[in-house]
Amino acid sequence: MADTNVNTLDVANFGPNLKRFRLENELTHERFAELLGVSSRVVYDWEDGFKYPRFQRAVEIANVLKVSLDSILRTA
Q1: pTM
Q2: Cα torsion angle, 58, 63, 65, 67, sign
């Protein structure tokens, strides 16, 4: 069943795209996590699809990576 909470995302492509943009910005897991105020374990979990950020955090991620939120969610 789909989560209908408005604070969550449809994240089918989120993890792979997050990793791609993080690497394009030459950010380690640790540095990226530091910029967001989360643990590096959380970044690993996002990239591997084990966990997903809430909407506001996803907006912060897009800002740190200097990309649109749409670009993180679209099919590569």
Answers
A1: 0.82
A2: positive
In contact, 40 and 29? CB cutoff 8 Å: yes
CA angle 49, 75, 15 (to 5 degrees): 20
Q: What is the CA radius of gyration of the chain?
A: 11
Angle subtended at Cα 71 by Cα 55 and Cα 62, rounded to the nearest 5 degrees: 45
Evaluate if residue 32 carries a pLDDT over 50: yes
Q: Please, what's the largest Cα pairwise distance for the chain?
A: 37
Structural tokens at position 6: 């408005």
Amino acid at 25: N
CB 58 within 8 Å of CB 6: no
